[in-house]
């Protein structure tokens, strides 16, 4: 029997046993906003345990996550505004986000992830971050309804979100590299409090997914979207110098000539 067929066979444990194993093998909650930490990770745990019972692979779960997410984004961009459309967007985006959490948890159930799986997950995340705000821009174009003055906000928001995502991923990568080099956990690796998770909730992608329930109320959605934009821009302005100072204090990295 090949390695592939062996790894995808039905596990010899129950669904509840898979859940219990996941509960004791959660990654650090450092920096996670409230919805992602307390709601999405739990939803992902249930889905990961189910996927494990079905013999699915993390990459398959990532693909299903992308299918839900980009279907929701397509509804925002191309489907006329309606209450049913808003509900569909929220359900699709929430399901996609939960599955985005499930793929990593499934990898832990199966004994660990892979560089290719992490690469795929990050590439899809980067794509959805950009296309989500592009879809909002297209929806504003399709039905301006007095929003001409803020028409360019989704495009600026797209830049803010892209820079924030890249900075977060790169900062975490450099922290881990320093941890490997020194064998000492870095300052950014400790868990954060529930209060911090609530304080940074405006930056929570999951909360933004829920905000699309207001799509059928253009004024309400625009006000909330602008509030998200302002909060995320402020967070990025404050976080970038902090991350830079933190990494500067970690020690010198190898020169380019010394890198492989």
Indicate the CATH architecture: Up-down Bundle
By CATH reckoning, the class would read Mainly Alpha
Helix segment count? 10
Mean pLDDT: 85
What fraction, in percent, of the residue positions are helical? over 70%
Structural class: mainly alpha
Coarse shape: globular
| Number of separate domains | 1
The CATH superfamily label reads CDP-alcohol phosphotransferase transmembrane (TM) domain
Distance between the termini: 37 Å
The fraction of residues in strands falls at under 5%
> Which residues sit in consecutive blocks of at least 5 with pLDDT less than 50?
1-9
Instruction: Give the strand tally.
Output: 0
Detail the topology: elements first, then pairings:
Layout: H1 3-7, H2 15-23, H3 34-54, H4 58-78, H5 83-109, H6 115-142, H7 153-182, H8 194-199, H9 205-211, H10 218-248
Report on the architecture of this protein:
The chain has ten helices and no strands. The chain is mostly helical and 260 residues long. It has a single domain (28-250), classed as Four Helix Bundle (Hemerythrin (Met), subunit A). The relative contact order is 0.13. The model is unreliable at 1-9 (pLDDT under 50).
